[in-house]
Amino acid sequence: MLLAQISDLHVRPTGELYKDAVDSNRMFADAVEHLNRLDPRPDLVLITGDLVDEGLQAEYDSLRALLGGLERPYLLMPGNHDDRERLARCFPEHAYLPASGPKHYVIDRHAVRIVALDTTVPGDHHGDVDEAGLAWLATTLAAAPGAPTVVLMHHPPIACGIPYLDKYMCRRPERIAAVIGRFANVERVLCGHVHRPILQRWAGTLLCSCPSTATQIALRLRPDAQPASFREPPACLLHWWRDGVMVTHTSYIGDFEGPYPFA
């Protein structure tokens, strides 16, 4: 099974730029075209939050139109820039999204089980999960302890070393780690939010964060680093499950020179 992951689209109302700097809608359209051209094609596309930039109805209208060009099935989840109630209303055919409250869900109909844990805190940019969410996660994972599983979270529950990102990580991560760490069948924890590809072994599994389809946040590791973003190449992640093993690739979005002779 091939899972494609994209994140942090930051779709804007038609004709408006993201951060008054880049055309995130066009860049997302490029990402959709890239996903449609992949060979083999993904079985499922996971979109791990910050679907739009300000939670506006006009942004979700743009998002629906752009997703209309995606030829593969996809799953949505909110990020801190989303309005999670408006998201559910705008995509009523995505019945796995609860109509109100946190948008936790599980999808059981594929070779890999998808468990989405909503880490958004309405009105704020950091992440957190309440006791009810932790209980839901524990019960959901315990229901299929032998099934290969990926857990989706928008906010990474790790400090990545970029100071202006770590302020907005998922807080109290040890509580989530204590749950996930009990299940050896969790193959990946897949996150967005940080607009960078970051890997860390965490809770007995591998945590991966996905680049953005728009701008990438600057890799600045000094404790006094100032926030910045760059228009580095956008990318998606491809998580390939075969023969009982998951391998993750980074796939850059755009037209690049080549192919050149291999040897």
Structural topology:
Elements: E1 2-6, H1 24-37, E2 44-48, H2 57-67, E3 74-77, H3 84-90, E4 105-107, E5 113-117, H4 131-142, E6 149-153, H5 163-166, H6 173-180, E7 186-191, E8 198-202, E9 205-209, E10 216-217, E11 229-230, E12 235-242, E13 245-252
Parallel strand pairs: 1-2, 2-3, 5-6, 6-7, 7-9
Antiparallel strand pairs: 1-12, 4-5, 8-9, 10-11, 12-13
Full CATH superfamily name: Metallo-dependent phosphatases
N- to C-terminal distance: 30 Å
Number of helices: 6
Count of DSSP E strands? 13
What is the CATH domain class? Alpha Beta
Task: Please tell me the total number of domains.
Answer: 1
Q: What does it look like?
A:
With 263 residues, the chain is α/β, with parallel strands linked by helices. It has one domain: 4-Layer Sandwich (Purple Acid Phosphatase, chain A, domain 2), CATH 3.60.21.10. The protein contains 6 helices and 13 strands. The strands form 3 sheets. The chain has a 6-stranded mixed sheet with strand order 4-5-6-7-9-8, covered by helices on one side. A 5-stranded mixed sheet has the order 3-2-1-12-13, with no helix packed on it. It has a two-stranded antiparallel sheet with strand order 10-11. Helix 1 packs parallel to helix 2. The protein is globular, with a radius of gyration of 17 Å.
